[in-house]
Amino acid sequence: MLQECFYHTSLNNWVYAYDKDTIHLRMRTKRNDVEEVVAVTGDKYDWDKTVAEYNMLRISSDSMFDYWEAHVKPKYKRVSYGFRLRSGNQYAWMTEMGVTPDQPAPTGGYYDFSYIHEVDMYAAPEWAKEAIFYQIIPERFANGDPSNDPEGTQPWGGKPTYENFFGGDLQGIIDHLDYLVDLGINAIYLTPVFEAPSNHKYDTVDYKKVDPHLGDNELLKKMVEQCHSKGIRVMLDAVFNHCSEQFPQFQDVMKNGENSKYAEWFHIREYPLEVKDGIPTYDTFGFFGNMPKFNTANPEVKQYLLDVAEYWIKEIKIDGWRLDVANEVDHAFWRDFRKTVKAANPEAYIVGEVWNDSLKWLMGDQFDSVMNYPFSNKVLQFFTDPGMDGSAFADNIGSLQVRYPQQTNEVIFNLLCSHDTPRVLTRVGEDRRKLKLCVVFLLTYLGTPCTFYGDEVGLSGGDDPDCRKCMEWDPKKQDRDLFDFYKMLIALRKNNQALRRGFFRFLKADPHDSRVIYERIDQDTHFTIWMNNTDQKTKISHAMDTNDWKDALTGEEVHTTEGTMNIELDVFGYRILYRNLH
Question: Catalytic one among 62, 324, 336, 395?
């Protein structure tokens, strides 16, 4: 055994309280190097009477390592533990003191989880595990009230640019709520709706006022009430990293310079405020001078923004916040933000925009979730890159699974595209078969899935602003087959808890083979999903212990032959099978 690859630390995603009775332990070994890992556990004050062994399950792998997990239920909410590893007849013990050939005397030098304190536990809203999100840019979804159109509004469906407007508004969303219900959506995420000069509204001028071109505060309240009456949650987008240059406090700094009472609200490097060689003399989002960055460590700024966060939850009854450029705001602010939001509504869902590994925001004191762009990148890479095989795909997904605690994985905000990326249909080369494979994976995988408006009827588009096209409402121009497909897969997920909360594992993911099989399973139902990510018809075979499988989409019985399931799949085809366990 290559002991240099053994890894565990009693922190973060390697050991954590999953619920008030359960502690998850994880360990890493070299890939295909260790046959068995056992967690040997006990209470440090009463080891002999509480000692217990847990055979650890290899939950995932990546290109270099295997990852093992055990779910420990200690008698007294605390546990000391070490790991016993075996490869053939060779054994090794690993504790906090290092690796030894024999078991060290417990419990000195063992790892330790001191106590399950519920107040410290990460706990995301339960409803987020059931949610099927739909992202909407209000300006581009539907024009329900032409009377509030900005000057120069262009005809619906034109080519989007960075500056143009098409008149979409909150009334347009209200008018199409039944469409969302028909699709199966039970949660919507709106990009910013507060007063701002741009079409995208990420440059806020007034944080407590709905932009007049979209409606007003009362109309937003009406929209939220109607959504709730139809079983749809509402998450708004907040920009607390920066504001518009038209923001009154920033205007005061521009006018009065360092004598402004708001000078400490921003990060000013030098006066006067200007742009030199493309770089503002003050910190901004990127280097955009029209979006100055807040000093969120300033007590006045912090209180101002926390009041905003609380206001919309209490007054309008929104169900959560998506937080723009969240990784560029200090952690102390986000800790206070969570306290404020959860005090106003303990069930509010907090999603940060972080494009990379986000563990430091996801330990229970800041966000519930993040925009899972690493997921979308890995999924789209597999279904668009002919050189990527099933083994590499499983490795990539496996590395994402162990990146966060399990309760985070259950509500991670998974998406295939957004207002900041090319449309998924464009990413897959306009091949609807590949698009369907991506959507099948999205809706049968762990986490909280989100669809970008219009994907379900075939909207395409490249990078911003092309991805921000107007929603297509002409049925003759909509891809209704695609709509029916999304509707069918959404219903399948909503009707089967195993697809929302069940255990996930690849059953087949081989080198030099782009066909994969994976499973979702809970105490009641077992699903297997079969995918042919190749341009050839194929037959996939896999050993099955039982012969009671059905097609999840047609109800057709699917039989094994001598303990083997043989599934024929079309080019870029898929099949979803299930069996009831009781």
Answer: 324
CATH topology for 242-295 is Oligo-1,6-glucosidase; domain 2 (3.90.400)
Task: Given CATH 2.10.260.10, say whether it is the number of domain 130-240+298-497.
Answer: no
Bridge pairing between strands 349-352 and 369-370: parallel
262 Cα distance to chain centroid: 36
Distance between CA atoms of residues 216 and 248, nearest Å: 20
Say whether pLDDT at 122 is over 90. no
- Cβ-proximal residues to 272 (8 Å cutoff; 6+ apart), any chain: 257, 281
Given a contact cutoff of 8 angstroms between Cβ atoms, the answer to whether 233 and 319 are in contact is: yes
pLDDT for 422 equals: 98
pTM of the shown model:
0.96
Exposed / middle / buried, residue 66 (Cβ in 10 Å: 0-12, 13-18, 19+): buried
Instruction: Choose, from 353, 389, 410, 455, the residue flagged as catalytic.
Output: 353
DSSP string, 448-470: EEEEETTGGGT----STTGGGPP
Mean pLDDT over all residues of the chain?
97
Dihedral, CA of residue 305, residue 357, residue 530 and residue 513, to nearest 10? 150
Of 3.40.50.300, 3.40.640.10, 3.40.50.12160, 2.60.40.10, the CATH number of 3-120 is 2.60.40.10
**The amino acid at 88:** G
What does the block give as tokens for 318?
A: 């929104």
Q: Is 298 left (phi over 0), alpha (psi -120 to 50) or beta?
A: beta
The secondary structure of residue 22, as a DSSP letter, is E
Residue 457, CA distances (Å) to 155, 485, 575 in order: 20, 10, 22
Residue 507 CA, chain-centre distance (Å), reads: 24
Q: Which two tokens stand for residue 314?
A: 């209490």
Name the β-bridge partners of 525: 580
Q: Would you call 524 a catalytic residue per the annotation? A: no
pLDDT at position 123 over 90: no
Smallest CA-to-CA distance from 19 within 127, 126, 121 is with: 121
Q: Which residues pair with 350 in a beta bridge?
A: 321
Element (H, E) at 248: helix 248-256
- Contact present, 319 and 190 (Cβ < 8 Å): no
Cα 516 to its chain centre, rounded Å, is 23
324 part of the active site? yes
pLDDT at 91 over 90: yes
Q: How many Å separate Cα 314 from the centre of its chain?
A: 25
Task: Check if CATH label 2.60.40.1180 holds for domain 499-580.
Answer: yes
Distance, in Å, from the CA atom of 538 to the CA atom of 572, rounded to the nearest integer, reads 10
Please state the rounded mean pLDDT for residues 26-54.
97
